[in-house]
């Protein structure tokens, strides 16, 4: 990785990954909206990390991580324990910044998007340890 070609290759791969991730988030958002969820935040950034989507469905507030992989199983396996911890910490900050939100329960969900662009939502994919 000492020459310009290698850096270009890595930059291109990074751009493709970013584009793929954005497309997966758009697919996930459409699927969630179609199921009746209201999108409250997209790509919510905090000092602890980012939450892809924050949605409300009836009285439940959902913090959603989106993963795109060739298969749903690979997408589900891609969510690491460290990422789960980061999302939970970010959710705490987001909740502190939005006392106006009215909800009865919270869930941490995963939307897995496969190569065909199909999305599958896993409710309560993880929780506090």
Automatic annotation (TrEMBL):
This is UPF0102 protein AOE01nite_13260. It comes from the Bacteria. Gene3D superfamilies: 3.40.1350.10. It holds the Pfam family UPF0102. PANTHER family: UPF0102 PROTEIN YRAN (PTHR34039). Belongs to the UPF0102 family. GO terms for molecular function: nucleic acid binding.
